[in-house]
Amino acid sequence: MDSVSRQPGIPASPKRDELYAAAIHEFGRALDRLAAGYEADPEKRHDLRQDIHLQLWRSFEVFDGRCSLKTWTFRVAHNTAVSYVHRERRKNTGFVSLEEIERTAPSGDREPDIDRERALERLSEFIRQLKPLDRQIMISYLEGMDAAAIAEITGLSPANVGMKIHRIKSILAGRFLEEKRYV
Q1: Structural domain boundaries of the chain?
Q2: Torsion angles phi and psi, residue 133, rounded to 5
């Protein structure tokens, strides 16, 4: 990302540039999906993606290799996205807890045939409703990370991460089944 490395007042660093390039090469698509998990609006998502890239690039100046490149990349990306969510929350308080989602009955005006694209969009909507930590866990899980890797990123124990994943998946499955009953 040439525009990032040309930020005024930030000296170029070969180490930072190399690490950033490696991270984007390996995890760029996953970072795009992560941004989509935090922001539905395409224009705001673009801004979030740019912010993630900038913060990631800056962070590599202090990267010391005590964790994997993947862990560092996703930790920075999630922290940037969580900061974004907190800024947006000040404008809109539409987030709900897992308990509230579990209690909320789905609407009965869904079409009977749920195709893959529509199911994925509903999954994305559900994830965007979660509190930032739960959202971070599910996005990481959907990117194929195991509980230990997610725990390293979030600072939770692997057992706690596994429990949260199981609970969110159960709630989600229940929501999809309930929607089918209402059609």
Answers
A1: 1-93, 95-183
A2: -65, -45
| CA 98/CA 85 separation, integer angstroms | 17
Bigger pLDDT: 113 or 77? 77
Nearest to 140 by CA among 44, 64, 37: 37
The pLDDT assigned to 109 comes to 46
Please determine, for residue 10, whether its predicted confidence score (pLDDT) is greater than 80.
no
pLDDT, position 114: 47
Signed CA dihedral, 42, 153, 89, 134: sign only: positive
CATH assignment of 95-183, given 1.20.120, 2.60.40, 1.10.10, 1.10.287?
1.10.10
**For the CA atoms of 141, 143, 144, 150, what is the dihedral angle to 10 degrees?**
-50
- As a residue count, the chain comes to 183
Q: For the stretch 120-130, what's the b/e string if a residue is b when 16 or more beta carbons lie within 10 angstroms of its beta carbon?
A: eebbbebbbbb
